[in-house]
Design a protein that fits this description.
The structure is a homodimer.
Chain A: H1 3-10, E1 40-41, H2 56-66, H3 68-71, H4 79-93, E2 103-106, H5 108-120, E3 126-131, H6 135-143, E4 147-152, H7 166-174, E5 179-183, H8 195-208, E6 211-215, E7 241-245, E8 259-263, H9 265-278, H10 284-287, H11 300-320, E9 335-336, H12 347-358, E10 360-361, E11 363-364, E12 376-379, H13 384-401
Parallel strand pairs in A: 1-10, 3-4, 3-5, 5-6, 6-7
Antiparallel strand pairs in A: 2-8, 7-8, 9-12, 11-12
């Protein structure tokens, strides 16, 4: 098998969220009748249930009307928009961000992640990632010919922290890892890192001269008044640090593809060089929509976060009623990652079966680490009633496949 | 120097079109006073002079109003939009395109090019590109650790063909090249390949089992009623072929970032896997705008092409009046690539000087091949009067730097 055939074999996206409609049909062990109910796609948030930020369409319209100056921007994004975004991200995180040097606007946070990884991973480089964590992280390491060094997260252990195995992380740095990538809140568990965890990660990275890449995509949606620690604003942060974030989740602006990365000047500058050959720039007219981000009407975000917290409470309650099902309540973000008891089918098949019998799309745990063979991920940014009904249907289907003791 | 430092040093984009505002200030040999006139940015087309396709904003609005189903699409693009685009691209090119297998919607044609190259170039692979050709082509080969094999284009020789050196191309295939990438019409010269050239390229690729990647971005803007040959619709095409195209140029939809690639199923499928980790998808709401492409009001495209042909005629006329200046009239697209006589300054410095003294942005020839040290590129999709005035200012500045005989 040649290099590319091998590489792309690992990059499969048939089980990835949102790709379910492209799955090849294969015979499934379907048990019982379909369960009626409103179809729910838990693979991503429902922007019909939680609408895009107020004024986002009008901002796009203004950008379109500006014409040429908005259609073509520097690869890193329009100057005055970078100034506005830098000011707002500084205020939010506490980090110092020079809009000329430390910020790039990207096509979604995925765009930021890709550009950062492409700027930091050379073939053979050891890269530490968390398991479980966002499914694209491992694929990016593989695409850039890096060597994956997984770090365990014991997320059931202590709800006051994410549960990252810091001893493993230090060993990874000792073994030559020079880049550590993690999402906070963690995707898919919704675990938030404690201040202590963040401080130790920063200090280890400094000691070993490692680069940190922190995905804070969901950092505006923290529940229960819990403390959230922005690594970028801490003392003694490593010299090489990039934070990525965007308005696609809580703000529901995913359809515009907007993201941002901020941090070390040399990494941002590499990312722009890469952007120049990847897709030139974040769609020019869409860039105008950044102005609605962090400029929401008073009370809007508080209300939106509270609505998600209520859905979390209901779903976690439903899941915990079922014997053998385990789940850590989400600290932040819109994901839960329930663990199921032993089933007669694989988790990948279970997800396909659920789609057919219950009209519900869920993402198999194995997308987030090969060991998560009993987990699935749910994005609960949905209509609350539809979401709880759908979870009940998933659990009803699950009972048909529960392995006999 | 480590691998990435070396790689990104080659990826410089300071002289790239549109990046002029980020150039570091360095002392220039400025001669004489600034020449007054309306500033013109020849680094890209002016969408204020040639507006986006009629109905494009309204199509976006409808996409936004559809909501969730339009915000989140398959990575390769929304199914019914792929069906529409496949039908229209089939009608335009004559190629058979199955919207399920042979087509991916991408963030601009640049996005298509990046995904295709990322799917086809492994480290060490020999890749043939034309000199001159689009500046990103060489950068992509370098980014993916390929080995560049340049093929000469003798574009002054015979205006009935592009002038590709087909003997060099065959030697390249003999030496192990398995991928040939070229733009037709050629960027930056505007030369269109003759039917004979296209037939020979296709036949050589077949013989040597090579893959072809054809950039047809400007293929809807052909002048003088000249014949244009779509390689994808020829008999005896190679098994592995991808054509890329998009509505960013003649259609002025660049601000939405829309492109497309069609061709071999396995390459399109790889491109989608890569898209899944690059930026997920072409911005969902923007995808709704594809419906205006190839659905222009009657006579719209003919008029737009004629307007560009008139600008070409005027600019070529002005350039040819000047002793020592050489230019091939554009067959298709919005570029001219004039060659200047010997100057006292480098072409890169000349471009910076022109920006300061004449308020005109032009792109140095060296972006298109290291040997083009006396050329610059102009995108003449501009207001006609502003463009001809600006070219006169460029030539007036040029006289101040003409080397004494």
């Amino acid at each position: 098998m040649d290099i590319l055939t091998e590489k792309f074999a690992k990059l499969g996206c048939d089980n990835a969220p949102g790709q379910e409609s492209l799955q090849k049909q294969k015979p499934l062990d379907l048990r019982g009748e379909a369960i009626e109910g409103r179809p729910v796609d838990f693979s991503h948030g429902d922007v019909d249930a939680f609408a895009p930020l107020p004024g986002s369409f009008e901002a796009f319209k203004q950008g379109f009307e500006v014409g040429g100056k908005q259609a073509y921007t520097e690869y890193r994004g329009k100057d005055f928009i970078r100034e506005d975004v830098a000011r707002k991200l500084s205020a939010f995180t506490g980090a110092k961000i020079d809009p000329k040097k430390n910020l790039i606007l990207t096509p979604g946070t995925q765009g930021a992640l890709f550009l950062a990884m492409g700027s930091l991973v050379a073939r053979g480089d050891k890269v530490a990632i968390v398991e479980p964590d966002y499914f694209a992280n491992r694929k990016l390491v593989e695409f850039f010919d890096g060597e994956l060094v997984p770090i365990t997260m014991n997320y059931y252990e202590n709800s006051a922290q994410a549960g990252l195995d810091l001893i493993e992380l230090e060993k990874a740095f000792q073994s030559g890892v020079r880049l550590f990538l993690f999402s906070n809140p963690n995707n898919p568990t919704g675990a938030v890192y404690s201040r202590d965890e963040i401080t130790v990660i920063a200090s280890l990275a400094r000691s070993y001269g490692a680069t940190l890449l922190v995905d804070e995509l969901y950092s505006r949606q923290i529940f229960d008044g819990r403390e959230y620690t922005h690594l970028c604003a801490q003392e003694d942060i490593p010299e090489n640090l990039v934070t990525i974030i965007g308005p696609s989740k809580t703000e529901s602006l995913s359809g515009f593809r907007l993201g941002a990365a901020f941090g070390s000047e040399y990494i941002i500058s590499r990312m722009e060089k890469l952007q120049a050959i990847v897709s030139l720039r974040t769609a020019g007219y869409c860039q105008a929509v950044y102005k609605t981000w962090f400029s929401e009407p008073e009370g809007f975000m508080e209300e939106r976060v509270a609505a998600h917290q209520a859905i979390r409470d209901e779903l976690v309650g439903i899941l915990r009623e079922v014997p053998g099902v385990r789940v850590r309540p989400t600290d932040g973000g819109s994901y839960v990652f329930p663990e199921l008891p032993e089933l007669d089918v694989s988790i990948e098949d279970f997800c396909k079966i659920v789609r057919q019998l219950a009209g519900v799309s869920i993402t198999p745990g194995t997308e987030f680490g090969p060991q998560f063979t009993h987990h699935f991920r749910v994005n609960f940014s949905q209509d609350q009633k539809a979401a709880s009904d759908a979870i009940r249907r998933v659990l009803a289907v699950m009972e048909r496949y529960r392995k006999a003791e």
